Amino acid sequence: MSKRKRIIALLVGVILLAGTAGTLAWLSVTGVLVNQFGIGSVTPSVQEKLDGNVKSDVKAKNTGTAPAYIRAAVDIYWQDATSGARMWEEPQAGKDYKIVWSDSLRDVSGANSASSWVKASDGFYYWTSPVAPNTETDVLIASVTELKATEGRNLVVDVSTQAVQSVPDDAVREAWNCMVQDSVLIPPYANGGA
């Protein structure tokens, strides 16, 4: 083959290669996908009914955007009717007020079960299952009734709630020293941990 034919063959090959590359360039597409991640929130609130001197159907609600474990503290005390200050004298159950706890309330020494309240040795009441966003626990306190009105002071039943995300399990362990076993929260015992 002559030198001239080789050059022509080489040029034809280069043109074909350039044409193929150009065609590939025109047929390829690049896409961009942007993922936006939101941060979940856990926001507990207390739901209750108040009718005169009776507080009833006290439960907790997760008003956040992520599933959460919830615990509650119950503080019952006298408040000065004039100043609003907390008084030193403590009201006595059965004498000054009557409290009816929920049927789902268990003592920490018993076997834990899902979807129940457990009174732990740290003074908190723990709901043993994760609470989905915008859902409530069962009732913690069925009713609290002031038995006799006393001049100059008011009975206060203060229920406060706290929440921690339910996933991962380490979050509740680190925050509250609790464990999770088979999706059931195990509150701390008297020995300082679950």
Which sequence of SSEs, written as H and E, runs from N to C?
A: HEEEEEEEEEEHEE
What is the gyration radius calculated from CA atoms?
33 Å
Number of strands: 12
Number of helices: 2
Question: Can you offer a commentary on this structure?
Answer:
This protein has two helices and twelve strands. It has 194 residues and is of the alpha+beta class. The strands form three sheets. Strands 1, 2, 4, 8 and 9 form a five-stranded antiparallel beta sheet that branches. A five-stranded mixed beta sheet has the order 5-6-7-3-10. The chain starts with a helix and ends in an 8-residue tail after the last strand.
Could you provide a short overview of the structure?
It contains 2 helices and 12 strands. By secondary structure, the chain is an alpha+beta fold.
